[in-house]
Description:
Layout: E1 4-9, H1 32-43, E2 51-57, H2 63-77, E3 81-82, H3 90-109
Parallel strand pairs: 1-2, 2-3
Amino acid sequence: PAALVLCHHSGREAIRTPRQRTADGDPIIPPLPEIVREYEQAAAWVRIAPVVGIALNTLGLDDEPARHAIATAARETGRPAADPVRFGGGPLADALLAQLDARRRHATAS
């Protein structure tokens, strides 16, 4: 990958697994900044690729809390965030295009 977009269901605190359906046994989802680092570390095995944006699923939230969740994700991670289904993916597309442009400029300069 040249860039990553972290996808997250807003408000979800645990991963539901097929064998474990209770909150007591499900793995806890770490804070978004930690997940960003883990995504980048996992991708680095193949190619160094930054997380350039956060795609949130805000299903179940009213518009105002959804927008607040998006703003919080952006603030916590320092990356643009959006719910591309609900509000459009413009900020994520812009971040991906900016990363592509930066990679092209770097390749040209080298």
